[in-house]
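P.,

For your records, the input lines for the assembly:
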Amino acid sequence: MRLLLVEDDRLLAEGLTSQLEKAGFSVDITHTAKEAVVLGKQEDYKAGVLDLGLPDGNGLDVLRKWRSSKVTFPVLILTARGDWQDKVNGLKAGADDYLAKPFQTEELIARLNAIMRRSEGRVHSTVKVGRFELDENRQCLQIEDGTEHSLTGTEFRLLRCLMGRPGHIFSKEQLMEQLYNLNESPNENIIEAYIRRLRKLVGAETIATRRGQGYLFNDSV
Amino acid sequence: MRLLLVEDDRLLAEGLTSQLEKAGFSVDITHTAKEAVVLGKQEDYKAGVLDLGLPDGNGLDVLRKWRSSKVTFPVLILTARGDWQDKVNGLKAGADDYLAKPFQTEELIARLNAIMRRSEGRVHSTVKVGRFELDENRQCLQIEDGTEHSLTGTEFRLLRCLMGRPGHIFSKEQLMEQLYNLNESPNENIIEAYIRRLRKLVGAETIATRRGQGYLFNDSV
DNA sequence: CCGGATTTTCAGAAAGAGTTCAGGTTCGTG
DNA sequence: CACGAACCTGAACTCTTTCTGAAAATCCGG
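Structure tokens returned:
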């Protein structure tokens, strides 16, 4: 059970490490964001514990860099007490859980076990259609020619819907339901606008229009 | 409109039920996961509402059991506020939508209607006559030689009418009634115009004219 | 509060579907 | 066999839907 602990407070890091080792983990420590990024990419950890308050850069950036380079092990972030914003941002950036300082080591261990258990069943999930591959974790689109495009949130949700069922016609109303909830309902033209953007990525022929019916993702080719 | 409500909080369940019934649903309640699994498999519901926090087993397991035994009605899951993980897992396990507690009953009803509407189109229905197959979902015509033509709305409605009863003679007046409602009544020549377009797809011999009587779709070959 | 990214809106252009029209053709009947 | 009614045909026209590019509004992190 290899763990990466990213924590600049050396005293805390030492203490944690000894307890984690007692609990059966094998722990690598690093104190800097820079090293954390490299280690995370290089080594094969089963989980990471990441303090967000680092001297040489933000912990969130470390997490984002990991996630954008296919580092998929579960990450628990440590935040200052009550720092609600950090917590939210952390989860958005791909963290699996968080713990506010100060905390009991038992709780950290319990949560680490929890996120590791959860992550076991987690596949690096991608949707593949023709020469396109949509990466759900990284929210980006890879094309067979080797190019890769990161998508904005709305672009991604729309494309996932279409690619999730290639050949199926989705009406604009259905797509609206997928992208927006009941209280927010923008102009229907918004679908057309996003379809256009996606077509610039995947090519116009890949997303077909069925006039009066809707749109579909072409599974052939 | 039969619904299954799986909710262990009896008070909440009662309240919801009375409101759902006002909205025109007929609701079965169960408080346990065990019973939920059985009922879902046994009865013919149009949708399900599933609370993930159940005493005797996880709501997700109920959903998984349903889905792995071909229970296909749409399911909306109720999660504790902000329980981000539950929501994600729920959707992965086959839920159609989710709602975080606490919620407005109106929103629940709206979403139920939405997922039920969406699920209607899930059955794949086609009409097959001779070497032609009309796909009602995709509104397109497949021919035995492998070609496929997507149809416009009016083309499709007319062809479905003819193919729905091969060999039967439909008068122009009957066809007009099928295609248009009372307030819109275009030139009668419109039928001839569309028959012509269809013949270009299926071949002139496939749609026969009975002078003075009407048209029919040839079932022989 | 600023600057960049993202989302949303808008309005004119383009394309497509639906409809009409003006002959031409065919058929049945007297 | 001549005539009218019914039907066929191709093109033109109208109206709706979709496309498109740009601008405005909003969100978000610093």
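Two observations worth noting. Residues 152-155, 186-187, 189-190, 193-194, 211-212 of chain A lie near DNA strand C (CB under 10 Å from a C1'). Residues 105-120 of chain A form the longest helix (16 residues).

Regards
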